[in-house]
Amino acid sequence: MSTDDDPDHHPTEADRRRTHQDEVIVAALASGRSYEDAGAAAEVSARTVRRRMAEPAFATAVSARRGERVAAVTGQLVAAGGDAIAVITDCLGSERDSVRLRAAHLLLSLGVQLRGATELEQRITELETAQHGRDDAAGQR
Q: What is the C-alpha to C-alpha distance for residues 28 and 36, in angstroms, rounded to an integer?
């Protein structure tokens, strides 16, 4: 039985230190820092960080934290999107051809990228829904 499963187990100083180091490593890696930088922040070696990342649960925790950071940044981008579009749209009225051309190119490029991302997301959702339906049907047999 692991110490995590033992209700009488009380975390030792080493357990608390490891938990703290893991949190520091997860935060550092999720923010894009290298193994070396993450290790330095947690006061462990880059080799230790690599060993921890080889553990599926740890790697999943780093991935989840990255996902949280991406979601937060995405929210900020969406919130600022209207203002950004207004600035680009204002540039369409510039007296300088190069500014108007750049603004037009940017708007069109972003529109195509957004449409592609939206269509891809929709297709993934449809595939997931279809897969869940097949999984549910297989589970009822």
A: 10
Domain count, the chain: 2
- Quick: pLDDT tens for 6-43: 667 788 998 899 999 999 999 999 999 999 999 999 99
Q: What is the DSSP string of 61-111?
A: HHHHHHHHHHHHHHHHHHHHHHHHHHHHHHHTT-S-HHHHHHHHHHHHHHH
List the domain range (segments joined by +) for residue 46.
1-81
Give the span between the Cα atoms of 44 and 12, in whole angstroms.
19
The predicted model scores a pTM of: 0.59
- Where the chain has pLDDT below 50, the residues are 1-2
The residue with tokens 């033992």 is 6
Tell whether 56 is covered by a domain.
yes
Q: Domain check: are 7 and 52 in the same one?
A: yes
